[in-house]
Amino acid sequence: CRPALQRVLGIGRRGASAIPKPLGPATRVTRAFSSVKDKTKQDEKAIELPTNDNNPNLLRIRHTSAHVMAMAVQRLYPGVQVTIGPWVDNGFYYDFYNPENPFQEEDLKKIKKEMEKIIKSDLPLRREEVSREEAKRRIEAINEPYKLEILDAIKTEPITIYHIGDEWWDLCAGPHVETTGKLPKNAIELQTIAGAYWRGDEKREMLQRIYGTAWENKSQLKAYKDLLAEAKRRDHRVLGTKLDLFSIQEDAGGGLVFWHPKGSTIRKLIEDFWKDLHIQNGYELLYTPHVANLDLWKTSGHFDFYQEGMFDQMDVEGDMYQIKPMNCPFHCLVYKDKLRSYRELPIRWAELGTVYRYERSGTLHGLMRVRGFTQDDAHIFCLPNQLEDELVGVLDLTESILSRFGFDNYEINLSTRPEKSVGSDDIWDKAETALRGALKRKGWDFAVDEGGGAFYGPKIDLKIKDAIGRTWQCSTIQCDFNLPERFDLEYVSADSSRQRPIMVHRAIFGSIERFFGILVENTAGDFPVWLAPVQLKLLPVTEEFRPFCNQVKEQAAKAGIRVVVDQSAERLGKQIRNAEMEKIPVVAVVGQKEVDSNSLAIRTRRAGDLGNFDVDNIISTLSDAIHEGVELDAVMKLESDQAAVA
What we know:
Elements: H1 3-9, E1 28-30, E2 46-48, H2 56-76, E3 81-82, E4 87-88, E5 91-97, H3 107-120, E6 125-130, H4 132-141, H5 145-153, E7 159-164, E8 168-171, E9 188-197, E10 206-214, H6 218-233, H7 236-242, E11 246-248, E12 257-259, H8 261-280, E13 284-285, E14 291-293, H9 294-300, H10 302-305, E15 314-316, E16 319-323, H11 328-335, E17 340-341, E18 347-356, E19 372-382, H12 387-404, E20 410-415, H13 425-442, E21 447-449, E22 459-465, E23 471-480, H14 483-486, E24 491-492, E25 498-499, E26 502-507, H15 512-523, E27 536-540, H16 546-558, E28 563-565, H17 572-581, E29 586-590, H18 592-597, E30 599-604, E31 608-614, H19 615-628, H20 632-645
Parallel strand pairs: 13-18, 17-24, 20-21, 27-28, 27-29
Antiparallel strand pairs: 1-2, 3-5, 4-5, 5-10, 6-7, 7-8, 9-10, 11-12, 14-16, 15-16, 18-19, 19-26, 20-22, 22-23, 23-26, 24-25, 29-30, 30-31
């Protein structure tokens, strides 16, 4: 590592500087958005946006806003039936049955105006408890059949109803504000209309869902709208097309990803980094089939408990085969291939395994929700007294991998034993103690979701925060007491008895596709130089300088740099603009001066024009920067500062 790079990386005689620890939960929106994590920092004025979890008043505002919207709709459009209307992360929605005269986008202004009248009236919200029979009688009297289905689904009594004044009511458990006048009308907006099947069942009626957002004040609403605008600019589906990274080919079927050459280049870098780091940390790699006999999925329990998420089976010479929705049963079979000794444990096996899961077409969303995806799966088989150390190792590895891609701000949850579970009290207690111990050894803050674990074991969930403050579920570490029983997995203990290993499922990215989508949005497609599909683009001022560009290209490629020469006949200004649109981190202009002096005029997206540099020197510097995962201009600025001091 060159001295300048050592300074940039924080490396000295004592080794690399520590990776930042995760911060506690917070939602922040900045007025100045940076598209690459380590770009030159801008002055930012952060606005704290509250959440439903940390602000009970905001939750009440959103819930009441949903009711007021439904009341406004039924005032304006008599005969429209209401179904459900909950609060959600950033607002609220209500589903309506309105087949005769479907809502149009222009109706939202009319509905919002009627909501403002209701808010101005300052009507009281009143909670009432009634018997199931009385609730049914009232629902039948107003001819709201969907409410009857909701009533049937409520298993507790008495039934609670919330009234707005004396005009409107709905089945509801609350909470709400005291009066409609408590709603901040200038911090509420109706956003969109969407279709939604009743109960999420495509065999049932199609409803119309009206989404709204609600905040405590106008400033929060503005900050949220700024966030939406920035999120739209970063949409991975749009950038995926603009940057020619991937596509969803509807001719082949929805939810199936086609990786284009540039996207494939980035994917390979991600996968190679993942594999290398796993091998360094004591994992062995597996490759397993894409299909298996249906009996395997019956043994694992997936066919009984996850059948709705699996594709239909196929007949192979009279036997039924299933395309795999999970990798874990395959790893269990490999473990069971021979009798294991306690001396072999822990066993760590990792696989980038492609799985296929059925998703309704209406739920598919770019790379975030697809039907075929590659899990960065790994399974650890260990002894009970090894569990905590193994979990610490997983957390260390997770931190190393995520931080490489610019994610070092996490929200962490520990989910514990639910009411219905498998496994003894002793094994649950030991596993939960190990999970807590591993998190404490890392020094990480975490929340506890009591009873939120899977029936087969407790787990840790890790959410990452992106450049604009959004959280994304990413990594999961899951103890499993179920599959070792189902597959009769054993090891020979020190006393020669047969014992069950503890099995740990873990994924760090979750899936390559989803993580790639998050990465695109986090960087706005402006990838750091080490990850960019094209790292250097050479721009000849005229055609006569193309041979020199080709010579430089060959030299740079031998140094491991991904380099192209602009093949267009465009003027230099247009070539530069095209490179900017392609988000290429480093471009080099080549004219007569550069040919005569064997140099390149360097320009980066981060810092603009940097000046002319000898070809050999700039290729060496860029190659080192790529290898160490830092930006070229950061290294060059430091070298320039050092030269000035000297």
